[in-house]
């Protein structure tokens, strides 16, 4: 019975992400079409809402073509690994106060680990294709993603210093009084830019630059395996929008559809940036990371630690650096409790949280 419950949860999360990806592609095409004064998808289904399903079925029934000189095994493993890792990362995302598939004390580190591992799928796909364009795209993806993961890590450390926990639900609950958007607005802005680079999105889509590399690491892919790369990319965009909402915008705190609304707004920004800004040069991207974002986030981390120490607002060492259940008990034990109405029947939260 226990295993059956986990299987059902896994299926629900998978279906949720797949549907989000399908409708996100339609939303992207609609927004870009309106910004460029042209028609978007409007032929398949009402208002074109079934266009993504139609495109997916078309690609799935096509014949998979393997390059003659490709390493077929790694050629298959690359996109499969990228797809699987992008969806496994969703297992630690708290959709609501207690609606999380796997609640681990170190869920933030779990996300960083899976984000780093997804890079191997791109490298295997680009190298195994035995194509210069695909290989150049894979090399660019390696340098780009490694560089921006350093800045992402430093940004997350600043947030962890304020919340006192590596658990995503705990980070959300620590924002019950104030969202981290206000004290960490520069980090919010830089995290969004780093997320664009991490997901290879325009204007940082150098790994897939059509003008120089045809399509980058997925040049030789078609049919099913191209779909896997495509699904992984859009799932990562939605994941990053969700993560930004949890870290800086209070996550699920508030009304029932609070997290969904914040995700939707951020997902729109991913699309608007693609339609509004031209692609940079590759050297400009790397300089922006190593010469601006990295020094700034490091300085902000030092400033955050100093202010927390001076204001005596540091989280306790024996505080909620554990699971959500322990964090919940910690709040219930040490602070005055206030009953708030949410989508759940009852959610007890602190009316005044000061980690001191």
Task: Describe the protein's architecture and organization.
With 356 residues, this protein is an all-alpha fold. It has two domains: 61 residues; 254 residues, no CATH class. Helix content is 63%, strand content 2%. It contains twelve helices and two strands; from the N terminus they run ααααααααααααββ. The protein has a two-stranded antiparallel ribbon. α5 packs antiparallel against α7. The two termini are 42 Å apart.
Concise structural overview:
The chain is mostly helical. The chain has helices at 2-35, 51-61, 72-88, 107-128, 132-163, 168-173, 185-198, 210-213, 223-248, 258-276, 282-310, 324-334, and strands at 337-340, 347-350.
Q: How widely separated are the two ends? A: 42 Å
Proportion of beta-strand residues? under 5%
Report strand order across the widest sheet.
1-2
Give start-end ranges of low-pLDDT stretches. 318-323, 334-356
Mean pLDDT across all amino acids: 79
Q: How many DSSP helices?
A: 12
Q: Which structural class do the helices and strands define? A: mainly alpha
Question: How many whole angstroms does the radius of gyration measure?
Answer: 21 Å
DSSP E strands, number: 2
- Could you spell the SSE succession in H and E letters? HHHHHHHHHHHHEE
Please give the share of residues in helix. 55-70%
Largest sheet: 2 strands, antiparallel
The count of domains is 2
Morphology? globular
């Amino acid at each position: 019975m226990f295993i059956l419950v986990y299987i059902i949860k896994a299926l629900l999360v998978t279906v949720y992400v797949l549907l989000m990806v399908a409708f996100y592609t339609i939303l992207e095409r609609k927004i870009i079409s309106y910004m460029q004064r042209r028609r978007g998808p409007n032929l398949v289904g009402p208002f074109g809402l079934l266009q993504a399903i139609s495109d997916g079925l078309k690609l799935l029934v096509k014949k998979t073509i393997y390059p003659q000189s490709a390493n077929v095994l790694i050629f298959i493993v690359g996109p499969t690994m990228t797809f699987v890792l992008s969806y496994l990362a969703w297992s630690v995302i708290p959709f609501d106060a207690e609606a999380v598939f796997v609640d681990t004390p170190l869920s933030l580190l779990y996300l960083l680990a899976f984000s780093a591992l997804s890079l191997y799928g791109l490298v295997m796909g680009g190298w195994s294709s035995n194509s210069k364009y695909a290989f150049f795209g894979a090399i660019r993806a390696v340098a780009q993603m490694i560089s921006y993961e350093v800045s992402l890590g430093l940004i997350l450390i600043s947030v962890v210093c304020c919340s006192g926990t590596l658990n995503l639900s705990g980070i959300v609950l620590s924002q019950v009084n104030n969202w981290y958007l206000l004290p960490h607005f520069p980090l919010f802005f830089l995290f969004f830019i780093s997320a664009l680079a991490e997901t290879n999105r325009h204007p940082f889509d150098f790994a897939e630059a059509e003008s120089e590399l045809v399509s980058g690491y997925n040049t030789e892919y078609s049919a099913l395996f191209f779909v896997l790369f495509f699904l992984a990319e859009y799932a990562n965009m939605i994941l990053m929008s969700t993560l930004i909402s949890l870290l800086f915008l209070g996550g699920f705190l508030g009304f029932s559809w609070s997290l969904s609304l914040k995700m939707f707004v951020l997902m729109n920004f991913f699309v608007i940036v693609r339609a509004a800004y031209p692609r940079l040069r590759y050297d400009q991207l790397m300089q922006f990371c190593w010469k601006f974002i990295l020094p700034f986030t490091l300085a902000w981390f030092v400033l955050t630690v100093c202010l927390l120490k001076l204001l005596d607002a540091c989280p306790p060492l024996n505080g909620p650096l554990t699971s959500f259940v322990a964090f919940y008990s910690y709040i219930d034990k040490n602070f005055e409790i206030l009953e708030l109405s949410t989508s759940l029947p009852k959610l007890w939260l602190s009316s005044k949280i000061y980690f001191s």
